[in-house]
Structures are given as C-alpha cells and as structure tokens.
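subagent[fold] <- orchestrator: predict structure for attached chain, return tokens only, no commentary.
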Amino acid sequence: MKISLRGTVIFSMILLTFFGLLTILSSQSEAESPYYLVLRQLLSFGAAVGLMFLCGALPFAFFRRHALVLSGISFLAVLILPLLGTRINGMCGWFRYGSFSLQPTEIAKAFFLLGLTAILKHFDRDSLRFFAGFGYTMIWIGAIVIQPDFGTSFIYFSLFLALIFVTGIRWRWLIGCVLPAAAGAAAFVYMHPYAYKRLTAFLNPASSWHLRQLELASARGGWFGSKIGQALWSNAYVPLPYNDSAYATLTETIGFAGALLVLVLFAVLLGALSCIAMRRDLTPAARLFTAGCVIIIGIQTLLHIGVNLSLLPPTGLTLPLISYGGSSLVGCGILLGIALSAASDKNEAK
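subagent[fold] -> orchestrator:
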C-alpha cells in the first residue's frame, strides 16, 4: 500500500506522540497520581490533531494572505508576557488561569515562520530581503529575550539564518549577522548568572549534578530499557524528566534500541516534509514554509537530544511531540497542519 507524503507526516506525528505519552507515564510511575500528566497530554494531543486537520483543510492562500496579521497577533501575545504572564523556573513565559497554562512562544512558531516567509518572498534584492527579514526576526527575539528565554531565541534566529540561506542570499550577509549575534549571546550569558553556570557546568561535566544524572539515566537503559515502572533514575534524580529531560527518560525506559526507533521516526517525519519542500509544482511560499518546518523541528530535536546526551550546554528546550506540554504539542500540530496545507498549494503558472 502506497502512503502519501501527507499520510507519512500524520502517521509519524501520531507515533511520536505515542512515545511521548510513554515517556511521561514512565517519568510519573512513582508519583501519587501517575496518570494525571498523561491524561492532560492526551487532551492536548486531541487539540493538536484537531488543529492540524483544521489548518490542513484550509487553503494555503488563506495563510499567505493573512500571514502578517497572524504573525502580528502572535507577537503581541509574546510581547505582553512580562506584564501579564506567570514566572516559572525564573522565566516569565506563560499565561496561567487556574490549572490551565499557555506558552505563547510555542504556539507562535508557526506564525513567526509565516510572517518570515511572506517577508522573504516579497523582496527580490538580497539586501532588502536580508534587512527586512533580519529586522523582523530581531523584533521577535527582543520580546523573547526579555522573558528571558535564550533557547527559543536561538531557534528563531537559526530559522532566519537557514531560510535566507535557502533563498540563495550571499555568504557575506550571513557572516555579517552571525558575528553580532554571537556578541549578543555572549552578553546574554554575562548578564544572566544561570546561563553562565550552565555553560561552565558543560565545560566541566564532572562538576554538574544535572548532566551527570542525564548520563546515568541514559546508561541505565542499556539496549532494551528498564521498562515502565522501573525507570528509577528518571523518577528520582533526573530534573524535569517528562519535559526538558524527556529523551534521557525515554532512553532509560525503552533503551538504546527504542530511542533509535524514535530517531528513525523523526527522520521519517523530516524526510517527508523535505520531500514536500522540494516539490517543483508548489508555490515558492509553500516550499519555503515547509522547509522552515523542517528547520524548526530538526534544530529543536537536535538541541534537546544533544543536551540530554551531555553534548551541548543545557538550554531548557522541549523535544517536539515527545516532551510534556500542551503548548508545545499544540504548536507542533498547527505547524504541521499549515505544512499539510502548503503541500496542496500548487503553482498555477506551472
């Protein structure tokens, strides 16, 4: 039976979410209410799938016409966070009402990408395309850094760099913005002691309790895992085992073989999106947006796994579709839904 690219995207998304539920359940097996977070994630999964199919059913022309409006509304939600948001773990990144919480930067990723796509496709000259896209991106990053959220800022900036590279911009423009960005990152680390501590801990892993627990959890999983209910390290020692440390929990639960299967599923998902982005019968905007989806999911996945394997400094980023968090899951659903819509945006001139 032949499966379409759209079907592959949907199937991969559902399977990855299943592994996410497994990870959350394993991390909560010793909790007083072991199914509480799983049930909440199931509700978020229902919303994510519903929004994915809803966005996929809308014509991509709708998103192209209203790209800047949708982006502007999302940006305002991010901008007012310092005034109306709730601070959790030192970051003011959530709106909270009772037990319900929403992280706008996760939902906004799709709409940030829509706005960036519209801007990059609007200008023909390299200089105009670069400065317009750079200015748009830095406005967003400025609002996110205030929270402060360096990890998400890095995702947004990496997306900008990758997309202007895809559009064929010259190397000198890329180099010209990477150097100031590196200086800005250094200033952020200098101004925020917790970021400096994370960096020094990464450079000296033996002194980092956090990184050591991630290593021990992953090693304890062995080839085939310790199974649900027996992931001792993830339940007792790993910080945020269902969120920031989800891949370490997953590895302890289902072992190296299972974790490798999850990587294969991510590769299938990203491969299907890449095939859509390379289709010549689609409009340039549709292809660029889908390429942006590959970049967002790919970079965040690599960063999360890199941190969990002690290959990168801790960033506090979730693993797409796996980590607990309704905002992250719903944001992925919207992102993939618009990509499915883009897959039907045929080039009429063709």
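orchestrator: received. Logging for downstream: The chain has one domain: 5-342. The mean pLDDT is 84.
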